[in-house]
Amino acid sequence: MVTTMSSATIAFYWVMATVCGLLVSWFSVRPLILKGAARSRWSGVESLGFCASLFVCLIAWRWPSVLFPQSLNPDESQMIAQALKFMFDPIPWRAVDSTTSGPLNSYVLIVPTWCGAELGFASARSVALVCLGGVAVTTYYTMRSSGSEAVGRIVAASFCFFVASATFGEYVHYSSEVFPMLLLSSGICLGWKAVCRAGGMPSLFLAGLCLGAVPFAKLQAGPIAVVMFLVLLVFVWNDLANPKDRWKAFGIFCVGGLSVPAVILSTLIATNHVNDFWQSYIKIGGVYRAFMMLPWDVVVFVARSKEFVVFVAGAVLAAVVAWWEGRRYPASTGTEDRRLQVLVAIYALITLLVIVKPARDYFHYFLLAVQPIAMGLGLVTRRLFFRLETQPRDFSEVSRQRARNWAVLVLCIWLGPLTVQRLSRAPQHPYLNNMRIRKKPHQDRAVEVIRGLTHSNDKLAVWGWEADFYLRTKMIPATRDVVTCMVTESHFVDLPAGRRRYYQERFVKDIVKSRPAVFVDAVCRESFWLNQRPTQGHEQLPALAEFIENNYALALDTGAVNGDGIRVFVLQSE
Q: Is the model's pTM score more than 0.85?
């Protein structure tokens, strides 16, 4: 099946995307083109206008992918299904085991339902847009503290244009990185505000709160949050001369950082699920190989993502141009500037290590690197713009004009390749036309049968890696494993026998306790990863097979002829 839109809709899309892109570009270079624009009495209102333009640009570029009615990545369906379960049981690791994506990633998906939205792909991707827009805005406020309004805007615009114009499914689905990115960016922004003594203790507490929440949104992003926490703590400690103020700041920052972990751990202790948290979240790090990619492997890995390569190439070229022209303009190198350079450098380094550590081709991990790359560019371009904005009288008219021209050129170098790449593919834009929706005949038949036998508030258990069943039937997951990648023997996860046994026993315990109305063995060739029915079907777990045989009746086998299909089992009345 192919989804197509009318030529008028396609034309409307490109016009709106271009107009919104130009609007952000205009806001970005305006402080340099117009004298005193960054210091006018309307500068506060204009800053809000720039932030609003970032969100409008994201919406204008990405609304086709938001409305695309199918999963773009299995993780997306998994996190939405987990949110569905959390709506009925909010206790983490009792209701849901989210593997390395913490419960916060699924909790946040519930927020749109408070406004009447349906929990699904559109609402999840809308949450992703809000998170990415929040990252752009907080990046802007962090970088403008370097003394240049233009730097803050260009860096935020650069981040915005990458995430807005990307069409690769790994970058546009609701991934487990987008909410942690917002938490990291907000924590760094608030922490840096406290370092600059503009925000005081409330900002320090909120910074700790955001950074402390990161490990419970994305386990792999935890090291980034810990390192940023320590860096900001050192900056604040050195900035305060009075020992009393130092310890006060230390206490407030730590209280903020420990607030979310304390709430979650207290809940786990009260519900007696600390062991599940330890076994299936902390020890899950062993699932990922203990060695990192070799340098050549990293190059090959990065090269496979063309959009990210274009982004990095534009950043490098823009940095070279800005440095070459800006080297003749001396700029202030105060303590805050050096500290910001250290912070960004450490941020970029630890992020790179986090991306390559799992030694797996998870392209959506690249999203974590976009912000530090953009911030690094901002520090390079700062020398070019600082004196023009802060001390315009020191510049001759020729120097002023050259700096403005180079500012526009830097922005064009960054945005040009992305824009050309998108426009050159306009006839084949993946979410406007020629987008093939993957048909799943076995799943379609199974969903139709399930709908005819159950109600939406019934419970459903799925064996395999097909969380779409929960979304399509609107049934509540019966087990904490909405996908059985940890339970099933497969090449995806290489677990010791003892660790695998823990997941298997837990799955059987959950399904026996919940007695779902329907059990689905979704292992067949059309399924994701777990698709070898002879070796990965639910029969590989004898205790589960016995329970299903004694309590359920086979209602559908889409592979009855060739032995390769989805099986639907219905609970027998007692």
A: yes
* Three-class secondary structure of residue 176 per DSSP: coil
Encoding tokens for residue 100?
């390395």
* 427 pLDDT higher than 80: no
Instruction: Classify residue 281 by its DSSP letter.
Output: I
Compute the 3-state secondary structure of the chain and give helix, strand, coil in percent, each to the nearest 5. Answer: 70, 5, 25
Query: 218 vs 182, 225, 283, CA distance in Å?
Result: 12, 10, 14
**Over residues 556-570, mean pLDDT:** 88
What's the chain's average pLDDT?
84
Give the CA dihedral 218, 224, 227, 233, nearest 10 degrees.
-80
Q: Pairing between strand 476-477 and 435-436? A: unpaired
The three-class DSSP label of residue 242 is coil
- Rounded CA separation 464/528 (Å): 8
- The sheet that has 476-477: what strands, in order across it? 476-477, 459-463, 518-521, 567-571, 552-557
Closest residue by Cα to residue 119 from 54, 174, 47, 55:
174
Cα angle 175, 176, 177; round to 5? 90
C-beta separation of 548 from 519 below 8 A? yes
Label residue 555 exposed, middle or buried (CB < 10 Å: 0-12, 13-18, 19+).
Answer: middle
User: What span, in angstroms and rounded, lies between the C-alpha atoms of 462 and 568?
Assistant: 9
Q: In terms of Cα–Cα distance, which of 176, 178, 185 is closest to 135?
A: 185
Reported confidence tier of residue 290, pLDDT bands at 50, 70, 90: very low
SS3 40: coil
pLDDT at 208 over 60: yes
Helix (H, G, I), strand (E, B) or coil at 102: coil
